Protein: MORN repeat-containing protein 5
Organism: Polarella glacialis
Amino acid sequence: QGRLNYCADGSSFYEGGWQAGQKHGFGKQTWPSGNSYQGQWLLGKMSGQGAMIWRHGSGSEKYSGSWVDNSPHGEGTHTWMADDQTMADTTQDSWLVKPSPPPSAAAHLHGSSKSHQTHQHQPQPHQQQQLNNRYTGQWNWGKRDGKGTFYYANGAYYHGEWQDHVKQGQGRHTFDDGQVYEGLFEADKMVNYSKPETFVGALAG
């Protein structure tokens, strides 16, 4: 038991708590890709409160919050960022174009959780990226699931129910021009959305 600094093959680096031959307690791990995790470990796995940064060609992603068995699970925040922008910088437009419903995968998050699935040792970023958007809501083993709010970079946002990473159930979408659709969502789509500027669900703003 104690603290350990080590560098594996000159590429992966860990500094932090150590117990029974495994990462345990508070520590920071950096991978060859430049991805890094700083936070709590439980017998070799990311578990507890921590922050993970994924780096890739179009920018970076950051999740900060609760982890269980190497997966975001519980309260947390996930943000997509272009280059070295901070989480507060949300200047780019989102991919939301009416009349299409907003797409499903990019954000900043804050929330809570449910069931279990198989995990990889190093978490991978989501396939689709919408830079400078953010999601605040519930996580279930790495996926948006439960109640949550998705903020688009252009000022639009959605608040409502999520299931298996997509909008599912009752929700409210506020467009960047102030118009509001409130009603049922299925498979990430507005069920009663008919045509631009027209909503069969509740309309306000």
